[in-house]
């Protein structure tokens, strides 16, 4: 069957051309191959699977790790004029869930949160329809070495078998070679019918800077005052994000904090206001950004040093999606690495917890806790207690090595871009001196100036009607 993919792209997305990696990914999936897609942030990964329902009959099923990311994608599809889309997740009301169940055969796109994989009614529901493609978004969540490992993702391979083995596409922006191998192994890729589509992860328009400072607040306020806006400031603490956002408002900036403790409604309002230029600066934890496609973010500042390169590359990748130069600046204060190590090591269960699960697995089978789920997974897979303890010891060392790598960027005399990309196995980096704070000390001053005035006089208008239409799966079907 011959298809004019370019014409379908133009009809449904109004784009004239595919970006690097998109067409190749679609063609691989159309051949029925298991496809791992590794494209940089802002490169249009969603096009790789959102074009699929217009090419083959049936429904495209997308497993997505965050409800906010899922809802953002659903909103964008609806705003494009496609109403045959829904999201199955734990936030649905009984009425919404019943509506989706009764109309399940009408949808071209179904988004599914990973915790729903364990719900038997979900499998029964999806077995009633033809799945033309199973998509695993943010596929690094599959890997135990990835930054956001989710035990629920370990069920995907068996879930796929129960759906009659549809073609599989896994997508991520960052994955080292070892992580790529583990993604393909845990998702049970067919070694004879699989392909890896990979584009260069370098974003030359993003300029990197690391600064060691004594007073982070003072330096941050100075930067926000001088840098072109809009921008993001990332924190490892919800309390600090709230505090700094309030301090910025007191200094006359339009700022808001965003983190997991905010209600879904408040999160959506903040996202929309930021997209509409009504907010200049968002002070956020890692809960913000995934799936947020704002083209003109001019800076991303990390108030706390990130704990690993994957997080850093993902979060700085929110910057400069319009192709214009932007700044990614990390503030470092002695002791930051200890904070990150402490936060990241919380994911590692204690030896006595592992031993307890292996002695009394029936007592933890219904516990909704990632640590218990992961230990129980190893137990169910026939791992020995000794091998499981050794695995978590290796993971602990891996985490500490990641933190140490990020710390090394603070005072290294090697180009930051070269160091980052080499970590991900990309040695072919060519750049001029306008690259990072090592290649050009004081590079942040190149971004001083006034932001666009486009949104300065906009009122914070009510968005209840818009939000209601976007959230409701029954709206405008």
UniProtKB/TrEMBL annotation:
Annotated Helicase C-terminal domain residues: 219-368
Domain spans labelled Helicase ATP-binding: 26-193
Keyword list, A-Z: ATP-binding, Helicase, Hydrolase, Nucleotide-binding
Pfam families: DEAD (PF00270), Helicase_C (PF00271)
GO molecular function: 3'-5' DNA helicase activity; ATP binding; four-way junction helicase activity; hydrolase activity; nucleic acid binding
Highest taxon, organism lineage: Bacteria
PROSITE patterns: HELICASE_ATP_BIND_1, HELICASE_CTER
Name of the protein in question: RecQ family ATP-dependent DNA helicase
């Amino acid at each position: 069957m011959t298809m004019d993919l370019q014409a379908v792209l133009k009809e449904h997305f109004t784009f004239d051309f595919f970006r690097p990696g998109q067409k190749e990914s679609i063609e691989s999936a159309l051949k029925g191959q298991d496809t791992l897609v590794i494209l940089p942030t802002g490169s249009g990964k969603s096009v790789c699977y959102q074009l699929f329902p217009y090419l083959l009959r049936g429904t495209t099923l997308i497993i997505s790790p965050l409800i906010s990311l899922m809802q953002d994608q659903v909103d964008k599809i609806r705003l494009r004029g496609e109403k045959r889309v829904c999201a199955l997740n734990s936030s649905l009301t009984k009425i919404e869930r019943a509506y989706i169940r009764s109309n399940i055969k009408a949808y071209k796109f179904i988004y599914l949160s990973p915790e729903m994989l364990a719900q038997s009614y979900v499998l029964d529901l999806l077995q009633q329809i033809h799945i033309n493609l199973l998509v695993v978004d943010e596929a690094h969540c599959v890997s135990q070495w990835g930054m956001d490992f989710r035990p629920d993702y370990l069920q995907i391979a068996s879930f796929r078998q129960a759906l009659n083995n549809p073609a599989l596409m896994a997508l991520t922006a960052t994955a080292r070679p070892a992580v790529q191998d583990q993604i393909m192994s845990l998702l049970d890729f067919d070694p004879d019918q699989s392909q890896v589509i990979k584009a260069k992860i370098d974003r030359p328009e993003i300029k990197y800077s690391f600064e060691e400072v004594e007073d982070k607040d003072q330096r941050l306020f100075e930067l926000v005052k001088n840098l072109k806006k809009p921008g993001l400031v990332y924190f490892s603490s919800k309390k600090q994000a709230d505090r700094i956002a309030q301090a910025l408002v007191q200094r006359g900036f339009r700022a808001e904090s965003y983190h997991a403790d905010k209600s879904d409604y408040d999160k959506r309002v903040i996202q929309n206001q930021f997209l509409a230029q009504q907010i200049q600066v968002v002070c956020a934890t890692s809960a913000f950004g995934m799936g947020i496609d704002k083209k003109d973010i001019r800076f991303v500042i990390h108030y706390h040093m990130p704990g690993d390169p994957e997080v850093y590359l993902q979060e700085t990748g929110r910057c400069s999606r319009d192709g214009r130069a932007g700044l990614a600046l990390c503030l470092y204060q002695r002791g930051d690495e200890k904070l990150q190590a402490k936060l990241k090591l919380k994911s590692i269960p204690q030896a006595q917890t592992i031993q307890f699960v292996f002695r009394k697995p029936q007592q933890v089978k219904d516990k909704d806790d990632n640590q218990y789920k992961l230990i129980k997974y190893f137990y169910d897979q026939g791992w020995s207690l000794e091998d499981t303890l050794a695995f978590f010891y290796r993971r602990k060392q891996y985490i500490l090595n990641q933190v140490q790598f990020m710390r090394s960027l603070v005072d290294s005399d090697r180009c930051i871009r070269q160091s980052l990309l080499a970590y991900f196995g990309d040695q072919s980096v060519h750049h001029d001196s306008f690259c990072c704070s090592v290649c050009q000390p004081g590079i942040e001053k190149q971004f001083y100036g006034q932001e666009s005035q486009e949104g300065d006089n906009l009122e914070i208008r009510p968005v209840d009607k818009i939000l209601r239409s976007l959230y409701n799966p029954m709206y405008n079907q």
